[in-house]
Predict the 3D structure of the following.
Amino acid sequence: MNCTSYYNTVFFPSDGVGYAANTCIIKTTNGGNSWSPVLTDTQGSHLRSIYFCNENTGFAVGEVSGHGMIYRTTNGGNNWDTQNTSNKLYDVSFINCSTGFIACQNGYILKTTTGGTTGIENTSNEVPEKFELYQNYPNPFNPLTKISFDIPIKSYTKIVVYDVTGREVTTLVNEELQTGKYEVTFNAANLASGVYLYTVTAGDFIAVKKMVLLK
């Protein structure tokens, strides 16, 4: 696939290194004198925003074949991880390499505190009647799955994934959340097939559910 002749967004994390995106992502290492593609397998893509917290770690967001898509690299564009969402994505910005935000359609904002390995999405402004942790979907999954949960009152919320031995694998959520219905994406690309447990703690509420990674 050939890169487009025009670009929607450009970002320079340093004087020499910069990135631009639309139907693909290109990179310069000499201040823009020359550019080369670093991501071209994005058929049907329309990337609207790109942000790098340093020369190597960055994010691009937009729409691919009608679905929202997040691209993430930690090695200067040599490899990219992807996450998709039902919402169209318009802008991305990070406070540091861990904490960032993505502006979506319908007034939603995605937030990550783990460098983009997960993203929290507020899926509804409806006030839930009670705390609830739902079964992840899909289940079994490979490698992405979504975990939904309800927060009826503002609460410090923590969601942690464990393996069957009780070893902590990752923390998906660890922050105070406003009232609402939420969904978080779990990317298990670096984990082995098997049974995992995920727990939510919010105020006095604690719940545990099981999920299966099948590669």
Notes: Residues 52 and 58 are 4 Å apart (CA to CA). The chain is about 0% helix and 55% strand. The mean pLDDT is 87. The radius of gyration is 18 Å.
